[in-house]
Amino acid sequence: MAFSTNGNGGTGPRRRGQMGSLADINVTPFVDVVLVLLIIFMLTAHVMEFGIHVDVPHVRGVKETAEELPVITINKEGEITLNGKPVDINEMSAVIHQRFPRAKGVYVRADKETIFDPIAQTVAELGEGHFAVNLVTQPEDTSKRKR
Questions:
Q1: Residue 95 belongs to what H/E stretch?
Q2: CA 133 from chain center: how many Å?
Q3: Could you give the angle at the alpha carbon of 119 between the alpha carbons of 69 and 122, nearest 5°?
């Protein structure tokens, strides 16, 4: 006794109208989803490119509430100043606590040609004074960058 799995008794190619499995992928739902996504993208693309215009209220700037922050500047010779006034590195923490009693952090600016030793000593001294040290950098000007 023999049997065949191709549905026609093993006597040749399948003919139209006979039972068999169809292994084709139905792409119609896929095309429908893609077209809907394309329409949504076309409708929202102009909002993504230009953004939404928001007219914010204008306020008058108040100078009384502006707080002066401690900024340590180190020039390329290694001279240290606190907000433009020379300061000794050994007395720096005490001077900052005296002039800025509520200051928790200090900004450190250094010339790019400064050797690292004065910067490291300043950061270590500020750390011992329990200050958060924030290093100030300048963003690179991309318009002057060589291509």
A1: helix 92-99
A2: 21
A3: 60
Cα 97 to chain centroid distance, Å, stands at 34
Helix (H) or strand (E) holding 69: none
Say what the pLDDT of residue 114 is: 79
Burial 86-97 (b: 16+ CB within 10 A, else e): ebebeebbeebe
* Residues belonging to the chain: 147
**Cβ atoms of residues 80 and 87 within 8 Å:** yes
pLDDT of residue 32: 94
Q: Delineate the domains of the chain, giving CATH numbers in brackets.
A: 71-135 (3.30.420.270)
pTM here is 0.50
Name residue 58's amino acid: H
- Here the tokens at position 26 are 């139905």
CA 113-114-116 angle, 5° bins: 125
Contacts of 107 (CB under 8 A, 6+ apart): 69, 70, 71, 72, 134, 135, 136
Average pLDDT by stretches of 10, the chain with 147 residues: 53 60 83 93 74 63 68 84 86 87 85 82 87 77 58
